Queue: 2 jobs
Job 1
Amino acid sequence: MSEYIPSTSEWVANQVELYESSGGTQGNTLMDTGMPVIIVTNRGHKTGAIRKTPLMRVADGDNYILVASKGGAPDNPSWYYNLKADPNVEIRDKTEVYKMQVHEVVDPVERERVWNIAASTFPGYQQYQNNTDRLIPVFVAEPAE
Ligand code: F42
């Protein structure tokens, strides 16, 4: 069983710790904004380690939209490469944990649709995209068969 390596970002690692240790009853929002957060458990594509990545909760029916914004940084987050290497993830949404499979949305029409859902759920995404030349990647997570 691979080990879990916490995020090198302390506030992120702390949120994961509170979210998971409370069984999803605490630490499930973005700081005090009240905006819901999910945790995506993914596999490090270099280390093989278990990685846990909090993301804004953007629902699309039974699916989730995962936005690799990283605050509008010029580079993709590491978890982007993890998901590309291994699409099998678990998503914790408060007290529920789902096995899911992700795929990057590259079709322009579909990307427009899911981006609009994401940006209306969390307006910060559009600000991030406005501030970077990087086209912020978007994944859709669907329940695993
Ligand atoms: N990030 C987003 O991109 N979108 C969001 O909607 C979002 C919401 C959010 C809400 C709450 C919260 O606490 C954090 C939130 N974040 C959001 C931040 C998100 O959780 C990540 O911290 C952020 O996106 C950066 O992701 P990252 O995977 O680059 O994490 C860094 C900090 C990190 O942990 N790096 C590790 C390190 O050691 O530097 C490596 C992690 C890793 O996956 N390593 C891979 C491996 O094999 O283990 C190798 C990666 C490689 O290619 O080198």
Job 2
Amino acid sequence: MRKNIVAGNWKMNKNLQEGVALATALNEALKDKKVNCDVIIGTPFIHLASVVNVVDKNKIGVAAQNCADKVSGAYTGEVSAEMVASTGAGYVILGHSERRAYYHETAEILKEKVLLALANGLTPIFCIGEVLAEREANKHFDVVKSQIETSLFDLTAEDFGKIVLAYEPVWAIGTGKTATAAQAQEMHAFIRRTLAAKYGQEVADNTSILYGGSANASNAKELFSNPDVDGGLIGGASLGVDKFMPIIEAF
Ligand code: 13P
């Protein structure tokens, strides 16, 4: 059955020392705790190797926030999936709306990134979600379906089974305006139906679908209590142990 997951996305926050300190503190907070979800932290590239070194890998998974769409070579400034995997990180966040909007990552580019992540043994946490205008035009289901189809539906069922999805309505990210539990459940159930139609009910039932967008200690319990919401991808509230732990403990 699918896993419950609480994943932090630090985005471009924390220098190396601050990041290592946060990971160390989270590791400490989880040390003697039994929690009912997998915990992942998504750090900037340069933090990965150091963070992997200070966390108990049985308690905390480590994710990159991106990887290149090329294997290797003359791509100045890029970081390959193989490099990410070589740090000991096990996950990579792909298709975040900030990457799509600010760095023009297209469905085709993301398709390549997903394949390279999988080829290097990384679990992609693949983000999808509509902007406000699309929701207001009642196009949010079509948009999300198309994001999934165009980047992921060429995968075999076996490979698709390795993907974690994160529904992040863009209008909820960093705005303090969370989707209601009902809006999240409605979309997550739609996503699961979409997966079932393509890969069958078993694959759909085994796929973890996380919610992201202004999730925090006060709304996590309600969001996570929905049958199709399997956890959260947490931005701002993952930047401090005091804010992140209660979300982990919401399960
Ligand atoms: P916030 O939790 O800060 O809204 O960010 C959500 C997000 O984009 C996680 O990837």
